[in-house]
Task: structure prediction
Amino acid sequence: MQKPEQTRREQLRLALTQGYEIGRRATALGRVADYIPELAKADPGAFGISILDLSGEALSLGDAEVRFSMQSISKVILLALALQRRGETETFSHVMMEPSGDAFNSILKLDTRSNLPFNPMINAGAIETTSLLVGDVTFADLLAYTRRLCLDPDISLDTAMYNSEFQTGHRNRAIGYLLKSKGVMEADPEQTVDLYFRMCSLSVTAKSLAGLGLVLANGGKDPFTGESLIQSDHVRIIKSILFTCGMYDYSGQYGVRVGVPSKSGVGGGIVCAAKGPLGIGLYGPALDAFGNSCGAIHAMTHISRALRLHVFDY
Ligand code: GLU
Result:
């Protein structure tokens, strides 16, 4: 008779293999982002998935070790650190926790409906959470923390990506100055946006994102040392915000169809913190109209169903 853990491992492997095939085919439906010129260099056919559980042995297929820029996935780390350094009450006096229904880089409602950014997963919100860290933590601190959260000591700054974003990130600068003009931002907007650009330009792999997903799924503890990296009540906040706001304007549909707290970035990455606990990292730079990786969305739709990972599955 097979041991239960063997059967689970086989289920994971089967779901991964099927999800990978479905996702790889779906890459043909998307387009690589080019509004940051350096992003346009990615191979649209690249695709990889990595799944990590408490056994510590990742199951990976395809381009799971290809490095790419983290982009918006860094917003998760910026929020975690803002909560740690400034606490829940102060953090949410600078940014709300409501889905915005607007594009990730929209400036519209910020000026017409509210002074506070809608949530920490859109650019305005992440720029505001970054401002809470300026003067308190350095980029080196953030890099070290990212390496620990992703269980990946090799993460580094992609300088070409950073330069590309620095040269073209005028809308993000505008958001910084708008927040400053409203008195919502206390720090210097230039320093804030620079730190934000650096965080977006950290180069990770699907495997690193599986590590981050597992830490979040495991209540914020490093699954292998037991060290607490994010306190558990902050993980609860972060995963709730990922569920409602993590997937751009597809967050509602993703919540229904996949139902796993996840965050995507325009570099083509998605991090998922699933029941088990399981961390799932995906990479596929061909994006759909919402800015999510086409391959990763198709793959996760299958994997969540096959493994019953939806938070409301019973
Ligand atoms: N660095 C990108 C920007 O601010 C991140 C966008 C994203 O991944 O959603 O435009």
